[in-house]
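User: Can you predict the 3D structure for this chain?
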Amino acid sequence: MFRKDFIDDIRTYISNNRKKLTRIAFVMLIPVSFIIISCLVMEPLINHYTEKITAEKVLPALEKRFDMKIRYSKIENYFLDNQVVIDSLKVIMEEDSILEIGSVELDYSINPFADKKFKITRITMIEPSLYLARNEKGEWNISSLFRRMRKIREQKSSIVGKESLLSALKLPEINIEQGQVVYNDYIYKIMQRVSNLNGSFSYKTDTSSLDLILNGMWPGKKEPFKSSIHVTPDTICMIAKSPPLPIFAFAQYLPKHIYLKQTTSLGGDFTFNYLPNSKDILFKGRLDFVDWGFYHKYVALDTLENITFSINTESRYFPKQDSLDFNNTDLIFGSFRSRIKGSLSNPRTSPIVKMKVYIHHQKIQDLIDGLPASLIPKLKGFKVNGELDYAVNVNWNPLDIDQIEFSPSGNVKDFKIISEPPHTSILKLRDSFQHEVYANGEYIKTILVSPKSKKFVSINDLPDYLVRAVLICEDGGFFGHKGFSLRHIQRAIKHDAKVGRFARGASTISMQLAKNLYLDREKTFKRKFQEALLTFAIENEIPKRRMLEIYFNIIEFGPNIYGIKDATYTYFGRPPWYISVTEAAWLATIIRSPSTYYREFLRGEMGPNHEEFVSRIEEMIYGGNGEISDESDFSDFEFADPPRKFRHMRKSEEEEDEENEEEEDVSGKDDNKKKDQKKDLKEKRKDADRKKDEKNKTNKKDQLKK
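Assistant: Here is the predicted structure, written as C-alpha cells:
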C-alpha cells in the first residue's frame, strides 16, 4: 500500500506539469492510433491473404502429399488469434469419404525470418467422424493412405537416415473433441460405432517424445474407456482402463485356433512399461476376456465357446531370451481363483514351461460354475459341497522328455453331491440302474445293472482269480488309490510328448468306469478333464467293491459283448464261476483292445506273443513275479464255437494235425527237463482250479436253493 505523502507528491507533480504531460500523451497517441487503424484496415486483407494461402497452397499440398481430396464449405482466418477455421471439411480417398469434420481450427505461426514462414502448430478437430470400411475383397478404404505414408517414410529415411515416421511427417499437435469412429466390415457383416471421442496427440521433435491420450464411449457400455501412451527414446509407457470392448473386427489378426463372435470382448485395467535399459517389458494389471472361443483337435473335437475368464498379473518379458516370467498371476473363472507362478521360454519354437499352480480353499461349486459349459457339458447342473486345497507342479520341456513333471498334491474337504443332472447321475450307481451304450455317437444297447437282470453278476460270485487277473492287467493299485495313478499319468505324459499326440492312457478302473458310464472315447483334453472330475466324484460317493461290480457288468469284451457273464458264455460257453485261471487271464488281457483279440476267438487259438503274456498274468495270479520260467500248458484252454457266420475261420482237426506234425519235424522232440517243469506247473494249477471249482459249485447250489 502506497504511503499517503507519496500519493500527494504525484498529485502535485501532475498539477504542476499538466501542459507538458498533455503534449507527451498527444504525441504517443498518434502512432498508436495509426497502428489500430492500420490493423482494422489491413486485417481483412491479411485474413484474405491467409485464407488464400490455406486454400491454394496448404490444402493442395496436403492433397498431393497424401494422394487424397479435401473439400470444405468455408475458410475463415482470424489474424489477431493466428488461427484458421475450416467448416465442414471432408477428406476423400478413392471416391469414398473417410473423414468428415464439423469444424477444424488450425493454429499457425508466421516468422518472417525463418525459412518456413507459415507453420501449423496445432490442429483442433471438432466433431470429427472417421469412417473405416473393408470391402468384400478385404481391401481397406485407407490402404492408399498407408502406402503413401510408407513412401514418405522411405524418402525421408534416405535423406536423414534412421528417422521416425512421426518426425518425418512433421505432424503438429492434434486435438479431438466429440469425435466418433464408424467401422463397417462387408466381409463379416458387422458395423460398430465408437462415440464421444476426446483426446490429443503431440510429438515433440526436440525431445523425440510422443504423447497420445484418447477417451471415448463404446456402444452399449456405461463406462468410458481411457487410454494414454507416452513414448520417449528411453521408455514406452501405456496405461489403459476399459470395460470389455468388442474385438470381432480383429479376428483376422489373431491365431487360427482363436474363435471370435460379435459378442466377444476384451477389457481391463493395465499398465505396459518398456525400459530399454532394463532389457525387459513389464505388464501389470488385469485383463477380462468375455465370450471367447477356441478350437484345437487335441483340446476338443468341437469349438469351445463362451469362455469367460480374467487374468490378474505382474509379468515381465525378456525379448533377448524370448522368455516370460509370470509370477503372482491369478487365473479367475467366475468366483474360482488359482494362483500361478512360473516361466515360459521359447514360446514360438519349443515352449518350455515351469510353473506351480496353487488352489487355496476354493469351493468346488465355484469351479463348476466358472468353467465354460462347452468344456464340461456333463457336469453342468451339479450342485456340490466341498473345498479344494491343491498345489500342482508342472515342468514341460519337449527337448528333454525325462524332465517332464506333473505332480499334484493336496486334499478335498467335506465333498458331497447335493443335486445332479439326470443324464450324469452318480448317486444312482449305489442301486440298480440302466446303462445305455453308445459307440461313435450311435446307440448300441441298454444294460440293466441289477440282480433282476439275467446277465448281472454280483462281485461276490466272481472267482477271486478272475478279479485278481483284471486288477493285475488294468489297475493293480485300485484298492489303494483315490481314482488316479500318478506314476502312470507321468509315464503317459512323457510317452505322449515323444510321439506328439494322445497315444497312451493312464486310466485306472475308476477312470474307465467314468468314461464308459458318461463319456465318449475321443482322445482330447475335454474328455480327459471331464473324466478326471467325474472320477473324483465317483471315488468320493461310491464304495470300491460296488465300483468293481459295476465295472465287471458293463465293460466291453468284444463286438457287442458287454459284461463278464456275456463274455464267458460267448468265449467259453460257461458262466464266470466255471472258467479256468488261464481263461480268466485271457479275458483280463483283452480288455484294453477287445476288438483286436476277438480275432483270436474267431481263429480258435491265441497268437504266440499273446500266449506268452497270458502265461505271465497267470503266473502273477498264483503269486509269482510275472517271470515265465516254464512254458505254460494251455491244454485246458478251449474257445467255444464262434457265431455261425464266422465258423469257416476255424481250422479243421486235419489241418491242425498237419501243422503240428510240421512243427514237430522242424523243432524235434521236447527236452525231458522242460517236460518235468511243465508237469509241476500243470499239477499246481489243476489243484488250484479243482478247489476253486468245488467252492463255486457249492456257492451256486446254495444260491439256487435260496
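The first strand starts at residue 69 and ends at 71. The chain has a mean pLDDT of 80.
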